[in-house]
Amino acid sequence: MIATETVCVLYDDRILAEYREVLARPKLGINPREVAILMEEIELRGLLVFSPPLPIELPDADDLPFVEVAHAGAAAFLITGNVRHFLPAQDQFLVPVVTPATFLTLWLSDSAGTN
Question: What is the pTM of this model?
Answer without folding.
Answer: 0.85
